[in-house]
Amino acid sequence: MKKVFPIFLFLGWMPAAAIANDYPTLERVDQVLTCMNKHGGQTIDNLYGCSCEIDVIASQIGFDDFVEASTFEAYRAMPGEKGGIFRESKRGEKIIGQLQKARAEAEKKCFMRRKYEGLEPKAG
Prior knowledge:
Low-confidence stretches: 7-11, 14-18
Number of strands: 0
Strand content: under 5%
Largest sheet: none
Oligomer: single chain
Order of helices and strands: HHHHHHH
Mean pLDDT: 82
Structural class: mainly alpha
Radius of gyration: 18 Å
């Protein structure tokens, strides 16, 4: 009976983990690599921080909303009328705000050590 209990405990926890991890692996890897590049390259510290970052984001924003927010962010800089659709959208503002909030929380949770040790990447 002792061996059965941990299995039920694990299965009871599994749906919550599945909900928080609904991002495809390819998207998670792309986000981690992009984040690592942004923070100065492929190091163990960046791997930890960036994988933590996407986990925090995934726990707060569903994958479809993440893709939509990323699209709005990317196309806001498009000049002219075409970019205006992305710059002037109430939905875009809302969803980008949610993504930025999730990123800010991830920055606090996942990259705190850098701030204390003066390891922030240099802008340049």
